[in-house]
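Appendix B. Chain record.
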Amino acid sequence: MAEGVLVVEDEKEIRDLLRRYLERAGHVVVTTGSGAEAIRLISEHAVRLVVLDLGLPDVDGMEVLRAARADGGIPVVVLTARSAVEDRIRGLESGADDYVTKPFSPTEVVLRVQAVLNRMEGGADRPAGAARYGGGRLRVDETRHEAVLDGVPLDLTPTEWGILTTLAAVPGRVYSRYELVNRVRGYEFAGYERTIDSHVKNLRQKLGPAGHAVIETVLGVGYRLGFTRDP
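Structure tokens predicted for this chain:
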């Protein structure tokens, strides 16, 4: 297929409903009710984003999520009937970029898909070009959508990229979890504190030993970029 949205949902009615709404919004859409088929499509085709139901009949949805993340960091919006906070956090820690609990509005799903794609492609309101921090250790290039630490490119999810570029916009400024979730996602999200903490944890792991120096925790407030911007 052309690069587009893959909907993985075992209920045909929901699958067809999401296809209609996403196509009306201008997306190329392919659908499947099989986790195994989804993994094949991810590996063989140009998939821009995956809308994924975790409760699949043949393969654990988490396996599909991991396949998407491993194949070039394809962003994933998770659909699930699992409403427990622990299940949300599990999905987010596995690399999901957003989480919608059933029952949901198809319009909301379309808006969240677009928000993730916008984050992946970079916000139009952010300054273009490369900036360096910490004496050249960290380079963030909004135009190329690249982040490099100590010469090593970082493979970031759209949400992790959004957090890093938000903090890098004003180094040293403390952003609350509430501010981050609204700036990165574009709307208030239930359970935002634990959601942001999970993404920051994943981002720090990708930053390696410098993770806590690059992204500092300000107890009781939120997070800030620990590196200053180079002249």
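Further analysis of this model is presented in Appendix C.
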